Amino acid sequence: MHDENCIFCKIVQGLIPSSKIYEDGSSLAFLDIAPFTKGHTIVIPKEHYMNMLDFPEKEMTAYFSAVKNVTIKIKEKLGADGINIMQNNFKAAGQVVNHLHFHVIPRWENDRAFPIRVKKLNLTKEELSEILLKINAP
Ligand code: AMP
Ligand code: ZN
After folding, report:
1. What is the mean pLDDT of each run of 10 residues along the chain (138 residues)?
2. What is the pLDDT of residue 1?
3. Which of 74, 69, 66, 85 has its CA nearest to residue 38?
4. Do 41 and 80 form a contact (C-beta atoms < 8 A)?
5. Is 134 exposed, middle or buried (0-12, 13-18, 19+ CB in 10 A)?
6. Domains (ranges, CATH) in the chain?
7. Which atom of ligand 1 is nearest to the CA of 36?
8. CA–CA gap between residue 23 and residue 20 (Å, rounded)
9. b/e map 27-60, b = 16+ CB within 10 Å
10. Does the annotation mark 101 as catalytic?
11. Which ligand has its closest atom nearest to the C-alpha of 85?
């Protein structure tokens, strides 16, 4: 199923151009047009799903194997020192394109592209217990 207003569905259908680096029966990967680093790639299922929450389990194996293949390809071909794999769900978490996608981002030692170590919360035991109770509540 495609969504006619979705930019990634348009890429799948060939209605707008993309720099493809990987394709199989159910997944597609192309270079991000506004990359964090050189080689930053977007991997999508060809079918339209909004994000991880509506993605059917039966399609996960094929999709994650595509993400892994892309990761290996980028690491080897670009000689990256490391790879960040990132995935945003909903606007509050930074999702802009509402078609499930993983970002595969090559990193090099000291590339200073973006910090992985960000400010952390210093929670009390009580605060941790409160969160635990909420999450584990029936
Ligand atoms: P997100 O914030 O997780 O929704 O990320 C969406 C990503 O898609 C951003 O990094 C955009 O730069 C990228 N993007 C948007 N439109 C295109 C496009 N036509 N081709 C390639 N990448 C795109
Ligand atoms: Zn779509």
Report:
1. 95 98 98 98 98 98 98 98 98 98 97 91 98 98
2. 86
3. 74
4. no
5. exposed
6. 7-136 (3.30.428.10)
7. 10
8. 8
9. bbbbebeeebbebbbbbbbbbbbbbeeeeeeebe
10. yes
11. 1
| Residue 30 β-bridge partners | 20, 42
Ligand nearest to the CA of 102: 1
HEC-encoded secondary structure of the chain: CCCCCCHHHHHHCCCCCCCEEEECCCEEEEECCCCCCCCCEEEEECCCCCCHHHCCHHHHHHHHHHHHHHHHHHHHHHCCCEEEEECCCCHHHCCCCCCCCEEEEEECCCCCCCCCCCCCCCCCHHHHHHHHHHHHCC
- Are the CB atoms for 8 and 101 separated by under 8 Å? yes
Give the length of the chain: 138
Q: What are 85's strand-pairing partners?
A: 104
Which ligand 1 atom minimizes the distance to the CA of 103? Answer: 3
